[in-house]
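Hi R.,

As promised on Friday, here is the backbone we talked about, encoded as structure tokens. Could you run it through your design pipeline when you get a chance and send me back a sequence?
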């Protein structure tokens, strides 16, 4: 069970770019959560994924030589959910129909999250260097927060300054 959670229903076992596929798999799940319960459900699910992911990562890596195997992608799911917060929040607060999840927002959130997760600027690199289950989860949370800030700024420019 812990392996299924850590690999996000075995998406992490894809042999090429498992983190990218884990992030991609998180997007339709986040959309479904947004559709069902709006921004509050997306935030609650993010917190739940973080906690369950921490427990699963701890169980899967206990006694293993590698502290952050590529097959663990539940951390990417948490980070991708956070990167989508500005999109979900903006739509929810604007009372847009819950099935609407426009592509510029989720594509930008995906690309920015992957950029920060792969590039690992400080403080992402700091968390990644912890070499603990908390570090495994925390570096993606921070990358997700950095992506979310960029998505919010881009949305502000697009919808505020450019009036689209």
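Update: got your reply. Pasting your designed sequence below so it's all in one thread:
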């Amino acid at each position: 069970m812990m392996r299924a959670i850590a690999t996000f229903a075995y998406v992490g076992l894809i042999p090429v770019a498992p983190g990218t596929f884990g992030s991609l798999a998180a997007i339709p799940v986040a959309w479904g959560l947004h559709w069902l319960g709006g921004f509050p459900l997306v935030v609650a699910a993010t917190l739940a994924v973080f906690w369950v992911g921490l427990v699963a990562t701890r169980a899967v890596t206990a006694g293993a030589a590698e502290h952050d195997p590529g097959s663990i992608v539940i951390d990417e799911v948490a980070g991708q959910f956070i990167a989508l917060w500005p999109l979900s929040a903006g739509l929810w607060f604007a009372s847009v129909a819950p099935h609407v999840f426009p592509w510029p927002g989720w594509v930008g959130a995906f690309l920015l999250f992957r950029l920060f997760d792969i590039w690992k600027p400080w403080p992402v690199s700091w968390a990644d260097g912890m070499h603990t289950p908390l570090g495994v989860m925390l570096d993606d949370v921070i990358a997700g927060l950095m992506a979310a800030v960029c998505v919010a700024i881009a949305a502000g420019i697009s919808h505020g300054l450019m009036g689209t």
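One thing I noticed while checking it: The two ends are 45 Å apart (CA to CA).

Thanks again,
M.
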